[in-house]
Amino acid sequence: MIIQSLLDTDLYKFTMMQVVLHHFPGARVEYRFKCRNPGVDLARFAGQIREEIRHLCSLQFKDAELSYLRSMRFIKSDFVDFLGLFRLNEKYINIIPLPSGELDIRIRGPWLHTILFEIPVLSIVNEVYFRNTQPRPDYAEGRRRLEAKIVQLQDDRLADLKIADYGTRRRFSNEWHEEVLRTLADRLGAVTPQPPHGLSKLPQFAGTSNVLYAMKLGLIPLGTMAHEYLQACRALGPRLRDSQVFGFEIWAKEYRGDLGIALSDVYGMSAFLRDFDLYFCKLFDGARHDSGDPFQWGERMLAHYAANRVDPRTKTLIFSDSLTVPRTIELYQQFSGRCQLAFGIGTNLTNDLGYEPLQIVIKMIACNDQPVAKLSDTPSKNMCEDERYLAYLRQVFDIEQPAA
Hints:
The structure is a single chain. By secondary structure, this protein is α/β, with parallel strands linked by helices. Helix content is 42%, strand content 14%. The strands form two sheets. A six-stranded parallel beta sheet has the order 5-4-9-8-7-6. A five-stranded antiparallel beta sheet has the order 2-3-1-10-11.
């Protein structure tokens, strides 16, 4: 079976789930799966995917896993106690193969009981697809490509450039994912919870979003919030226009200064900057980029901090949108010394063996029977079944209609 632990997911699923438990325990949501690759026939693998998800729904957290979560200073004891009783329930997920070859995956139910489906289900779809289409993987090519990335990063001029792994959801396989992490930690040096003394060179591998491998390999687990959190706040907050502010305030109330990276592209960058005022500039440690031009985004963030009399050098900009190592180096060269920097690389680390990776997502499309959507700075990333609602959101947040 592909997924052997409920920890085999991204950290931000747990940080958001804790907020849901404490602030929105009655919220009900709906998610939908989408494959952005044209012409890929996933429907023929529906049976295998169902079998893997059935196994996923049989898993429970082990005592050692719960102890690991409890050791994180921002994870509350009552949340870990809840996880000790938790199991995913197969009744909340529906998988329908379509005649077109597409796969219709819908997840409906209480947010608290469905939030952990997304990452393992995407990992399952990926691995089932590749083990059927590439039964003899060219791991030698994958290692050659990984080595080339490592050599680029080991340039002496990039000594303080750090990368992180954000690639769980679109990895080629869990086996390859672990090999990539072990190789990066060994070759680049890993940032660890208790760094050893006397290092001749600063470590360049900052950690991983994957909680299981962070625990298993002694890496730093990384993550704060995802788009679904701020999307759901549209239905859960007092007023649509103030929903982003509401989301940030609830987050700050829950974490009291921890996990202080704000996601900037759920409503578009301009709407984010309107809401991210002096209070939030000081309260949050930085912001994360996940759509639109990253160079323009970085310049706008630095200018925004300066305009709010906040020294950008004290703040962190995280870049995580479809990064490759060359693009990461370009961003580092433009912004190094002007702010703190972090880079999360996903598919290009965990699924670069010479095969075309799947561009698959699972996005929240409704909360409490109200449509929700992301108004991304990359329009192709928007996902909503109600065009009238998208038009309404653009009007409320004063966002221009994208060009056809």
